[in-house]
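Researcher: Checking consistency across runs. Here is HK97-gp10 family putative phage morphogenesis protein again:
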Amino acid sequence: MAKGKIELQGVDKMLEAVRRRLGDAADRLENKALRESGEPIAEAMRNRVDVSERRNRHLRKDIRVSRVRRKDGMKFVLVGAGKKTAWRGHFLEWGTSKMHARPWVEPAFHEKKAEALQVLAAEFRKGLKGG
């Protein structure tokens, strides 16, 4: 949702070991691990976001983990609201001149970043055992 970038550090050595051991299969394992590690953060976002009483598409139902993307050789996933609701999420996160901020993205990330790293490591371990 936000244009900001949040990175999880300390994964380079793990990736190197996975690539060395699995070769071509490492790419599939990396993609699966990235998507799975985004889920705890997405779930925390769903639990934190305010739900409107209006009958429109709710942010909570539109929070998802994207497909794996690449930019400048770096793989990543996006976690947040889809295109149809992200504009509303922006107002909640940062507020407006008439509404105070009710952050839900950044607190969810900070709450679950350690769990996301654990999920990533667990997926790599599973892949290495099977490989």
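Researcher: Does this match what you'd expect to see?
Model: One thing to look at in this run: The radius of gyration is 17 Å.
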